[in-house]
Design brief:
It is a single chain. This protein has helices at 2-36, 38-45, 49-76, 79-95, 103-129, 137-144, 147-166, 170-187, 217-240, 243-272, 278-308, 314-335, 341-354, 356-365, 372-386, 390-401, 404-407, 409-425; strands spanning 433-434, 437-441. It is globular. It has 18 helices and two strands.
């Protein structure tokens, strides 16, 4: 009996981590399929590059607007139910790609998928953070965010392989199907207690309505919305007065601008500017993303946790340094032809992805557990509104006016900006508990 209990205690967090990581992988595979088949979509609907980029901007626009409304709900109600509902919603919409026959229909489908995916990306990191002790958070999030490179690569490979032979819609069906099964698996997970391993404890009230409320259903619904929005606004103001959260978020926004633009336009750049076939361009970039992403996410998470024992600003330092180191390699990758191009793309992608786990850990550690989903929702709104919502369209506009190669100047500038903000944010990093000892703060 005791052995069974111990085994369940050890296996449950890992099982939950695997399920949520797999669902996160599908999330990124779904959104990256479009990048792989963009030339096919452009040819069918006769689009400009700015219109093509706007598909991603609209997706992320609705995604970021939905996030602040989902976050406070997750701070009060069952996170696994919201995650499961969102996964079913976005998987179903992805299957509806079969009936999109105009640019407007594809745009509507893409924006609605953004709303569904916001429910997962806002909530799942808080679920994962509560499964494991705080000093292991960088490594655990490194595993969870492996889904970004692996899922992105899966999207590129699916689209690049299946799109030219079976049409650009077919890869979306493959990306959508497993989402329904994983959504059901989430329902069987045991939800962890909020903030059970955190150094900082905070409280949240149980209901949005005032005590003794005796109004009708319509009035109750109106008041719930009113108090909900008022609380959301109040929490947003609080977060804006939190320099640890704000600098990590703004640094992530600049990084997201760079990464978002590169993900959207790199396959097309290799196809149209460097004259690779569509399949080979997606295959090469997909392999780079998956190999670099796995190595970078694990290494970044491990190094952040290792240095956290010596300096509380380790997550900020690693993220800032990796962004700065990636700049010269990105310049070579984009503006130097010949045998140096592919290795430079690989190295720059590694440094760009290296900060994924530590930077997300910095955001999570900057706030208390009971407002964490709200904080992540606000973080999502900011990083996308300043990052990969404008970058694909801006790069598409520059490409239409000049060239796609000229457009890549924008993500290079964003990398420098991100590094500067995160170096500045080091002095605001909060002290966290290490090795489970609340009386032993990190150094520096």
């Amino acid at each position: 009996m005791l052995y069974s209990l111990v085994a369940e205690t050890k296996l449950y967090p890992r099982t939950a981590l695997v399920v949520l990581t797999a669902l996160n992988l599908l999330n990124y595979a779904d959104r990256n399929v479009l990048f792989a088949v963009q030339p096919l979509v452009q040819n069918e609907f006769h689009l400009s590059k700015a219109q093509l980029g706007y598909l991603t901007s609209a997706f992320l626009g609705f995604y970021m607007v939905a996030a602040p409304f989902v976050g406070p709900l997750a701070d009060r109600y069952s996170r696994k139910l919201i995650i499961a509902f969102g996964a079913i919603f976005w998987s179903g919409l992805t299957l509806l790609t079969a009936v999109t026959h105009t640019y407007s229909e594809l745009l509507i489908r893409h924006t609605l998928v953004g709303i569904g995916e916001a429910t997962f990306v806002t909530i799942a990191p808080t679920f994962v953070a509560d499964l494991f002790p705080q000093e292991r958070r960088g490594r655990i999030l490194g595993i969870f965010y492996l889904a970004i490179p692996v899922g992105s690569a899966a999207g590129y490979l699916l689209g690049g392989k299946l799109g030219p032979d079976h049409g650009w819609r077919f890869p979306f069906y493959i990306a959508a199907a497993p989402g329904f099964l994983l959504a059901l698996a989430v329902l069987f997970l045991k939800e962890p207690k909020r903030g059970q391993f955190d150094s900082v404890k905070d409280v949240v009230e149980g209901d949005l309505l005032p005590k003794g409320f005796g109004g009708g259903l319509v009035k109750a619904a109106f008041l719930r919305v009113f108090f909900y929005l008022r609380e959301l606004w109040h929490l947003t103001i609080v977060l804006f007065h939190n320099p640890a959260f704000l600098t990590a978020t703004l640094g992530m926004a600049a990084m997201t601008f760079s990464l978002g633009g590169i993900q959207v336009w790199m396959p097309q750049f290799l196809y149209s500017e460097r004259h690779y076939s569509l399949a080979s361009a997606n295959f090469m970039f997909g392999i780079i993303i998956v190999v670099d992403g796995i190595l970078a996410a694990l290494a970044g998470g491990w190094l952040g946790d290792y240095l956290l024992r010596r300096m509380k600003s380790s997550y900020y330092l690693i993220s800032a340094a990796s962004m700065l180191l990636g700049v010269p390699f990105m310049i070579v990758a984009l503006f130097v032809r010949g045998p140096m191009m592919v290795p430079a793309i690989a190295v720059s992608a590694f440094f760009l992805l290296f900060n994924t786990a530590p930077l997300n850990a910095a955001v999570i550690n900057s706030v208390g557990a009971h407002i964490r989903a709200t904080a992540i929702a606000v973080n999502i709104f900011i990083i996308h509104s300043l990052g990969d919502v404008p970058s694909p369209t801006m790069m598409g506009w520059v490409a239409d006016k000049r060239s796609l190669q000229a457009a890549f100047v924008l993500p290079v500038i964003a990398m420098v900006v991100s590094s500067a903000i995160l170096f500045y944010g080091m002095k605001f990093a909060p002290t966290v508990r290490v090795d489970g000892d609340p009386h032993r703060p990190a150094a520096i």
